[in-house]
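ingest -> validate -> predict -> emit
validate: passed (alphabet ok, no gaps, 205 aa)
predict: started
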Amino acid sequence: MKYKLDFSPKVDVSSPPVTGAIVGTQLPRVFVAWQPSTWPVAPTAVDEKFIYTLKHICEESILGEISNVITDAQKSNGDLQHRGHVIAISLMCALDAIASYGYRGHYVSDFIRAQFPSDYHPHADQIYELYRCSLVHSWNLFEASIYPDKTKIKVEGGSIAFGLLDFFEALVQGTEGFLESLANDSALQRNTLERYRELRDTAKP
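emit:
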């Protein structure tokens, strides 16, 4: 796979703010994944360099951050007990953010059906409604369940349940699949360039 994500530590000798707009003394303009004002200008058409830029953003400022939290929680507690809400909410926000690049309308559900492993496809709408909306807007789950492990997605007690680690792996796989698809899908290319420009143009320098 050409655009496989890599969460290994990266060497960076710069010391910019950890997120958001650059404030205070201006540093040399370098590409920092979590600072949209440093993102390269969008090309007129999707090319390999642009896909690698997007890969870098997803890898370092979105999924890599979540991977670090998961690793830290496992080191501290042995598993993800008592970290479930924080990780689940960040996963739903990541899903929403990444899906919004290439898809429109019911973009979260469409992304899941197009890019996630097949066992998630029948549950795409429920993941949006019962997980994404419930966790992001109300912090808790009311009609669904999560486990602190690699439990595969399943129907349980009339609703769905899955393990946080399995969902994280599915989201990583979905992101890689999206980046691969981006090389040849004209609709994804058009939507992604539009979304990228929109985000970059709103960033404060």
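Helices lie at 48-77, 84-102, 107-115, 124-138, 164-182, 186-202.
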